[in-house]
């Protein structure tokens, strides 16, 4: 049985637990949260052991165990540092850290200790992302030339988010989400896919802004819109938008010489990947309006979860892939290098403002190995 410990049992922790239902081989030895009332409610709901302190949690987790850091973003650095110092591998919710200096410190500490360090999101390990990446490798659309990706979530500040609760009753952390910003919270869903397909980003040209002020009364919140052009070391160019203002749009399109590969749902591990062939019709160049579904060679991929709100994602794919990596004596696909590079690109986009210019990235990561069933 694999050993995990959870720190932080708010809204997102229920999404992890719902995902772990599909993976009964995972064993969670205990949970800790600063909010003891919330901790009790969560543990009672999921029949887990509540720990009185972080130290007690570390004592209960066997050597070589994995700490799932599901705390609020501002606490990620401190909690991950403590877990690494205690000798445990760490899988953190996004972002790895809200400051790049802190992210580098975590990366260095994991390296010194010989421990694995990864951060969400893990949908890049899911069936849809892996199918899209395989189609790109196989040249289904010909040589890829450009990517358009959207992570636009609608006018969230007008949504009835005070009624959004998780399975165990935790409220959606609206103020924290607005303070952290949609780019830090969501850009990784497609950045990880792009990095897995095309490798590291060399240059970021971006802009960001807060166009709906007052989401948290009396506070200046993080940008609620960002638009980035990403120049990859291998030559690919991608545009990524991320907003909580523009109408909901979660599609990604990889434009190639023969046509376009398209996915309409970033947050669905089983969303179809479709190829829209390009052809000439009466002296006009058009893409086939009805795409052909692209399939893997196997139907055996990974456990799926039901839909929860706008998402149908298995949040346990990342932690379980880390566990498999430990079993096989290798680095995990969501490696520390991958997490650090993701953090740098995301912060560059969010912090771009109106006058950032071109920003050269200083971190690098290797091209991700496909999942065994998607090779």
Automatic annotation (TrEMBL):
**What Gene3D superfamilies does UniProt report for this protein, alphabetically?**
Dihydrodipicolinate Reductase, domain 2, NAD(P)-binding Rossmann-like Domain
* Any Pfam family matching the protein: GFO_IDH_MocA
Q: Which domain of life is it from?
A: Bacteria
User: GO terms for molecular function, please?
Assistant: nucleotide binding
* UniProt xrefs under SUPFAM superfamilies: Glyceraldehyde-3-phosphate dehydrogenase-like, C-terminal domain (SSF55347), NAD(P)-binding Rossmann-fold domains (SSF51735)
UniProt cross-references to InterPro entries, sorted A to Z? Gfo/Idh/MocA-like_OxRdtase_N (IPR000683), Gfo/Idh/MocA_oxidoreduct (IPR051317), GFO_IDH_MocA-like_dom (IPR055170), NAD(P)-bd_dom_sf (IPR036291)
Domain Gfo/Idh/MocA-like oxidoreductase N-terminal, chain residue ranges per copy: 3-117
Q: Which residues form the GFO/IDH/MocA-like oxidoreductase domain?
A: 130-261
- Protein name per the record: Gfo/Idh/MocA family oxidoreductase
């Amino acid at each position: 049985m694999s050993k995990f410990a959870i720190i932080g049992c708010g809204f997102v922790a229920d999404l992890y637990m719902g995902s772990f239902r599909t993976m009964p081989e995972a064993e969670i030895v205990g949970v800790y949260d600063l909010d003891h009332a919330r901790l009790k409610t969560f543990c009672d709901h999921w029949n887990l052991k509540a720990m009185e302190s972080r130290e007690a949690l570390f004592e209960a987790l066997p050597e070589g165990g994995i700490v799932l850091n599901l705390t609020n973003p501002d606490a990620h650095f401190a909690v991950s540092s403590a877990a690494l110092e205690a000798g445990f591998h760490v899988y953190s919710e996004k972002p790895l850290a809200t400051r790049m200096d802190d992210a580098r410190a975590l990366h260095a500490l994991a390296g010194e200790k010989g421990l694995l360090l990864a951060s969400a999101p893990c949908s890049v390990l899911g069936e849809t992302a892996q199918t899209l990446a395989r189609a790109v490798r196989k040249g289904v659309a010909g040589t890829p030339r450009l990517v358009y990706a959207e992570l636009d979530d609608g006018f969230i500040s007008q949504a009835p988010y005070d009624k959004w609760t998780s399975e165990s009753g935790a409220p959606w952390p609206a103020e924290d989400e607005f303070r952290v910003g949609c780019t830090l919270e969501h850009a990784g869903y497609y950045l990880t896919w792009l990095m897995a397909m095309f490798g590291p980003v060399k240059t970021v040209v971006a802009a960001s802004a807060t166009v709906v002020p007052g989401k948290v009364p009396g506070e200046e919140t993080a940008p609620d819109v960002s638009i980035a052009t990403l120049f990859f070391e291998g030559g690919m160019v991608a545009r990524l938008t991320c907003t909580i203002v523009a109408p909901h749009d979660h599609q990604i399109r990889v434009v190639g010489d023969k046509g376009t590969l398209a996915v309409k749902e970033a947050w669905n591990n089983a969303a179809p990947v479709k190829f829209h062939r390009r052809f000439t019709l009466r002296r006009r160049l058009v893409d086939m309006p009805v795409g052909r579904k692209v399939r893997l060679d196997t139907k055996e991929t990974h456990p799926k979860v039901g839909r929860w709100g706008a998402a149908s994602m298995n949040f346990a794919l990342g932690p379980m892939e880390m566990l498999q990596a430990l079993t096989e004596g290798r680095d995990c696909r969501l490696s520390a290098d991958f997490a650090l590079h993701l953090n740098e690109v995301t912060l560059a986009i969010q912090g771009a403002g109106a006058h950032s210019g071109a920003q050269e990235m200083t971190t690098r990561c290797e091209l991700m190995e496909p999942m065994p069933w998607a090779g």
